[in-house]
């Protein structure tokens, strides 16, 4: 709170200084005093920036922004440039979650790596070391392709709920699909099922208040994650909960890339066909997914449900491999998903297949991909031909020359918008979840991914990836290098914002 007040004071001082200097007839001496005040704030900010020991290029970039863009440069830095380093913003949640994970996880059980291959063991040991969640073997998983497989399955399972439904989405719309799911939640609440519904305060802005009131009236407990009403000067506004979680009776869990809206069924004519991947699982890993929801729920409303053993009991199921559920974001170790992606890529011995809508990787991941390709490992990257944002589309394309020179295969998905977030290593290990391969997913958003080792679901992901390749065009280096100067300019401009995409 003190830091927020201090930053608000500095922002106000900058604004007043600019107003006095440029828009008043104040005496020359008074204007010089405000020029000095403005300069002092910028110098103080630059000094604080230097002390953070970022890379030289990032430090210089932000110094230029602060100096050459009066006031707006400071605001941009305040709400974008410094956020991923300011661990104090979610310090209490991070500490509380860590204590909860230690309590609910069976830390005394040593992980079993006996049936894993060498590259899988290397990754699994690293993941087990840096996360507070553990490997799960007694879990059955099933891949759901696109909305036409995912939403009927979600609705069917919701209708089967007997005790409770816990549901969380980044985007939840009041359109036809959203109302169908809300009607089911209302129906189950009236039947006596305990329903808790959590939505992101910014991602779900289109969720209408009368629908929220309708659910509450029926007994559904509804909460927004960091709603906009908290104010512009609250830096947490830029941190969003990007997780998509459904847990039913502690026995069934859903996670993946799909939000709730008709566009995810391909019914929005402005977007067209929507390619995505979701997953349903049963077994002990559902408990881990559930704990992530319960910790988010406690953060927004203070209700601690992890003390209830009925809600934290695991229900083992016959699995066919290893499943590891991992949460990432400002409430976990900084950059943990980036580290896991790097470790997964570095463990590859034969192939690396990536499908992502937003490819704005950090230096470590780019280096890992480039070295893997140079070692003769097959590296494939699949991205949509048309993205849903100018900056994300052209920032992604700005990395293509480096990747093509290293021998990495790039596929441009043509059928529609590719939104799935999938990594497949050597055909037997995979990641699926909510985290994109960009800085926002690595540092700002709350995410959740599931890592699969030797499960049948990995085979399904491989088969679907090969099918997606048939709907894609492989970029030819010679043709790509012939793109016009205007295209290069857009790529270079968009890349300037890669640190906040």
UniProtKB/TrEMBL annotation:
Catalytic site: 242, 244, 249, 419, 421, 426
Localisation per UniProt entry: Cell membrane
GO molecular function per UniProt: transferase activity
Catalytic activity: 2 a 1,2-diacyl-sn-glycero-3-phospho-(1'-sn-glycerol) = a cardiolipin + glycerol
Family per record: Belongs to the phospholipase D family. Cardiolipin synthase subfamily.
Biological role: Catalyzes the reversible phosphatidyl group transfer from one phosphatidylglycerol molecule to another to form cardiolipin (CL) (diphosphatidylglycerol) and glycerol.
UniProt protein name: Cardiolipin synthase
């Amino acid at each position: 709170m003190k830091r927020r007040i201090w930053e608000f004071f500095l922002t106000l001082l900058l604004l007043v200084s600019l107003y006095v200097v440029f828009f008043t007839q104040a005496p020359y001496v008074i204007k010089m005093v405000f020029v000095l005040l403005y300069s002092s704030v910028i110098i103080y900010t630059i000094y604080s920036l230097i002390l953070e020991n970022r890379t030289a290029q990032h430090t210089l970039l932000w110094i230029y922004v602060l100096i050459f863009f009066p006031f707006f440069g400071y605001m941009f830095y305040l709400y974008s440039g410094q956020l991923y380093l300011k661990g104090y913003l979610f310090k209490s949640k991070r500490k509380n979650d860590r204590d909860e994970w230690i309590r609910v996880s069976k830390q005394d059980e040593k992980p079993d790596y006996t049936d894993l291959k060498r590259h899988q063991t290397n990754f699994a040991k690293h993941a087990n070391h840096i996360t507070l969640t553990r490997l799960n073997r007694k879990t059955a998983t099933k891949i759901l392709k696109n909305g036409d497989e995912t939403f009927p399955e979600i609705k069917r399972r919701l209708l089967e709920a007997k005790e409770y439904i816990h549901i969380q989405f980044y985007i939840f719309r009041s359109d036809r699909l959203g109302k169908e799911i809300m009607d089911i939640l209302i129906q189950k609440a009236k039947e006596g099922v305990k329903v808790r519904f959590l939505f992101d305060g910014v991602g779900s802005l289109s969720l209408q208040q009368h629908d929220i009131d309708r659910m509450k009236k029926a007994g559904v407990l509804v909460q927004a994650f960091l709603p906009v009403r908290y104010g512009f000067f609250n830096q947490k506004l830029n941190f969003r909960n990007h997780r998509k979680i459904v847990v039913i009776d502690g026995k069934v869990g859903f996670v993946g890339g799909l939000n709730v809206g008709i566009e995810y069924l391909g019914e929005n004519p402005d977007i067209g066909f929507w390619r995505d991947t979701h997953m349903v699982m049963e077994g002990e890993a559902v408990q881990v997914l559930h704990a992530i929801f319960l910790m988010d729920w406690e953060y927004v409303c203070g209700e601690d449900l992890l003390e209830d053993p009925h809600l934290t009991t695991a229900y083992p199921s016959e699995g066919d491999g290893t499943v590891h559920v991992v949460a990432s974001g400002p409430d976990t170790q900084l950059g943990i998903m980036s580290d896991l992606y790097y470790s997964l890529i570095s463990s590859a011995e034969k192939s690396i297949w990536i499908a992502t809508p937003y490819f704005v990787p950090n230096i470590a991941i780019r280096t890992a991909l480039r070295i893997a390709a140079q070692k003769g490992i097959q590296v494939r990257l699949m991205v949509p031909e048309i993205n849903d944002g100018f900056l994300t589309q052209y920032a992604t394309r700005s990395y293509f020359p480096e990747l093509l020179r290293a021998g990495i295969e790039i596929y441009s998905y043509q059928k529609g918008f590719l939104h799935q977030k999938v990594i497949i290593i050597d055909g037997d290990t995979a990641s699926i979840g909510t985290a994109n391969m960009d800085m926002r997913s690595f540092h700002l958003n709350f995410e959740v991914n599931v890592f699969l080792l030797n499960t049948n679901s990995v085979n399904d992901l491989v088969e679907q990836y090969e099918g997606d390749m048939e709907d894609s065009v492989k970029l030819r280096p010679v043709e790509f290098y012939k793109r016009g100067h205007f295209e290069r300019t857009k790529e270079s401009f968009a890349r300037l914002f890669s640190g906040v995409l």
